[in-house]
Design brief:
Elements (H helix, E strand, L loop, with lengths): L23 H15 L5 E4 L15 E3 L6 H11 L4 E7 H7 L1 H10 L4 E6 L40 H5 L5 E8 L3 H19 L4 E7 L3 H4 L3 H15 L3 E5 L3 H8 L1
Parallel strand pairs: 1-2, 1-3, 3-4, 4-6, 5-6
Antiparallel strand pairs: 5-7
Helix pairs in contact: 1-6, 3-4, 6-9
Length: 257
């Protein structure tokens, strides 16, 4: 009998620490499936900072580094420049990447640093208690915005579309946005991440895949309600698909092999 699915070798078989309905576990599995398919387990390094992503090293059976909050792109830059034949993954949440680490990610992207960022966007601060994040939608409630994000009267500003902003920078080569809300979108997500990893190993510039992920705990919803909210509210504001694709012929060829 042909085995159609199994447990990825790069994924540690342990009980999850993530909340019910959280998308991190799905993302971890997809990353590990791709690493196994590309045969990169022995040459993969993930950098995961403060936030829910701090647990990531418990589940990945390859090397990891935990930088300070928001400083993950700086750590990934140093690692990739020294070990340029390795797959270096910068794994960040929206608070870490788009708030305390905004300058880090913008300048790394503009320099065209050759690592891949996995940007988990759940539109809120997860581990620290549900505060408003740079990606929190207008009207969305948070611990620091109990009446909902008000960009004008309360001076809370507007949610940031990170990929669209980074797309204007010369150093970015591949930017895509996926979601964990359905099998079809997870399958598409896998193609985006695999393309980004392949492009990195082909020596392309900066690559990033943003992933819309539910956070039922801090949204105050059940897992099913959170998936429904992501589909109805997040995806219309953060459209899925490839935002920028300027990969070279060599990277495209590598993707097919």
């Amino acid at each position: 009998m042909k085995l159609l699915a199994g447990h990825p070798e790069s994924l540690v078989s342990v009980q999850t620490k993530y909340c019910a309905g959280c998308g991190h576990g799905v993302i971890h599995r997809v990353i590990c499936e791709i690493i196994d398919e590309l045969g990169l387990r022995q040459k993969s390094i993930i950098t995961n900072p403060v936030g829910c992503s701090i647990w990531a090293d418990l589940y990945f059976d390859f090397d990891s580094v935990q930088p300070a909050h928001g400083r993950t792109p700086a750590a990934a830059t140093g690692i990739k420049r020294v070990l340029n034949d390795h797959l270096v993954i910068c794994y960040q949440g929206d608070g870490d990447l788009a708030a305390i680490g905004t300058a880090e990610i913008i300048h790394a992207a503009n320099r065209g640093e050759k690592f891949t960022t996995i940007f988990v966007n759940n539109a809120i601060y997860g581990m620290t208690g549900g505060q408003m994040a740079p990606t929190t939608l207008v009207g969305q409630r948070a611990a620091t915005a109990p009446g909902g994000r008000d960009p004008v009267e309360q001076g809370m500003g507007y949610p940031i579309r990170v990929l669209e902003m980074l797309a204007t920078l010369g150093g970015t080569r591949y930017l895509a946005r996926g979601a964990t809300n359905s099998p079809a979108n997870i399958a598409k997500l896998k193609t985006y991440i695999k393309k980004a990893f392949t492009a990195q190993m082909a020596g392309e510039g900066f690559t990033m895949v943003e992933i819309l992920s539910p956070c039922g705990t801090n949204w105050g919803m059940s897992p099913v309600e959170a998936v429904d909210w992501l589909e109805k509210e997040m995806i219309p504001f953060y459209p899925l698909g490839e935002i920028k694709n300027e990969l070279s012929h060599n990277a495209a060829q590598g993707e097919k092999t």
